[in-house]
Input
Amino acid sequence: MPELKDHGMNITVSSLISMVTLGTMVWFVLQPVMVSQMSLALADEMEDQIETKTKPISNAFKVLLQSDISRLKRNIAILDRRKTHDPDNFSEADAVRLADYEIELEAFEEAIDDLD
Output
């Protein structure tokens, strides 16, 4: 009878050791999955926080860009009118300024589209 008890004890210890080994293997297999899921959740949370905190700055920048766009459109309209109605007073400097205003307007409109 004592032999059975010893034998039973050996089976329990070996079962315990195999369970610990199995648990360790499962941990090393599942750990990367759990870490990646946690990092994705953390990244989503950080993205939401960043968006919330930068929204007022983005809105202010849009207002400034819109103001610059309005100013440029006014200046372009003035120069276009002068070019059309008074070509004698439309100088080469005015033509360069008009081209610069149009390039700047296009850049500002692209920037405001990128902010949306």
Remarks:
- The first helix runs from residue 2 to 85.
- The chain is about 95% helix and 0% strand.
- The two ends are 82 Å apart (CA to CA).
